[in-house]
Amino acid sequence: MTRRIMLAGGALIASASLIAAGCGSSSSTDTAASGGADTAAAPSPEGAAIGSGATFPATAYTKWCQESATCSYASKGSGAGIKDLTAGTVAWAGSDAPLDADEQKAIGKTVYYFPTLLGAIAVPTNIDGVSKAINLTGPALAGIFDGDITKWNDPDITASNPGVAMPDKPIAVCVRADSSGTSYNFTNYLSQVSTAFADKVGAGGSKTPTWTATVVSSPGNPGVAQCVTTNPNSIGYVDLAAAQQAGIADKAAAIGTEGNFVSPTTESVSKAGDVGTIPDNLVVDVINSSVPGAYPITATTWALAKDGAKDNAAVKKAIAYFLGSAAQGQLAALGYSPLPAALNEAATKQLAKLS
Questions:
Q1: Sequence-separated (6 or more) residues with CB below 8 Å from residue 149
Q2: Which domains does the chain carry?
Q3: Alpha-carbon distance 240 to 124, whole Å?
Q4: By mean pLDDT, which of 22-31, 76-85, 240-249, 277-286 is the weakest?
């Protein structure tokens, strides 16, 4: 089987009844499921900054808000958080994707991006008879999510996993149902490593991709993790913290090229954060890093704040805590990696611009 490959970026819930009948065809099915897509924030201390958005950093943000008493956070997806920030119902938003032109126009004010952590988009699997994490090349992973690869014993999967008996079973593909920065970064990676995926699903990242594989859709990273846990012969994409909480981090595939597969770990994620030049707006892209040993599906995430908003004094206190040594020092235990020193310094300096 031949697939077109493009190297870019410097290198290469559902219930058990939803086992995706017909999985692998070119159509998609959206199945709503519970699993934390719209998790309400705990009551905010008086004067605290209310935030909402991405589920990717929610484990860290929830902990930091509670222990610092500077903020609250509702985990509901990057797109929903951006809508809340636009409407003025929150003082800050969590997002794993930059604003698109329409979102920026709707806000109408300068938006500052404050990177807060690095995290892996893990690719957990639940395969009959396979008890360990498998290897997947970028193009094979893209083939699964664009519907080109539909069974676990496809030659492009078995070639990367010698000695592993892959079943002749359809692949159940678990994806996000909501507008998601995790989806944005995941599709950004897949479109970089596979021209076929870029042609079929779209070039660049999308918070709401139109999948060409048959998929099982669940809200939030916890929902996708539950989908993988519940559905035999499934695969999904979630932040590593969610995979750890769901008990499936040990089944997170190593991603890369033949002879150079990298597992998602604190160390491999940190290597991806070696970005060199940092843009003035701090919108750094660490997907598909060329640094040796870097996990290729690593993402940064931002706290977004509007210039001139009335609660920005409280927002600045919260973000300053996020960037501090106490908060950053907790990240490895939570399933993330701290910001590189240069990026943390740039974010701290950026706080002075927020008025």
A1: 24, 140, 143, 156, 157, 171
A2: 49-116+302-353 (3.40.190.10)
A3: 9
A4: 22-31
Spatial distance between the Cα atoms of 181 and 96, rounded to a whole number of angstroms: 4
The 10 Å Cβ neighbour count of residue 110 is: 14
**pLDDT tens for each residue of 67-94:** 999 999 999 999 999 999 999 999 999 9
The residue assigned the tokens 């640094």 is 291
C-alpha radius of gyration, the chain, whole number: 19
Q: How is residue 112 written in tokens?
A: 């500052």
Quickly tell me which residue has 């040796």 as its tokens: 292
Give this prediction's pTM: 0.87
Q: Give the Cα separation of 213 and 220 in Å (integer).
A: 19
Q: What is d(CA 205, CA 189) in angstroms, rounded to the nearest whole number?
A: 8
How far apart CA 252 and CA 260 sit, in angstroms, is 16
> How far apart are the C-alpha atoms of 40 and 205, rounded to whole Å?
27
**DSSP states of 226-256 as a string?**
HHHHHSTTEE--EEHHHHHHTT-GGGBPEEE
Show contacts of 316-319: CB within 8 Å, 24+ apart: 316/351, 316/354, 317/49, 317/70, 318/48, 318/49, 318/51, 318/64, 318/65, 318/68, 318/70, 318/71, 318/92, 319/92, 319/114, 319/116, 319/347, 319/351
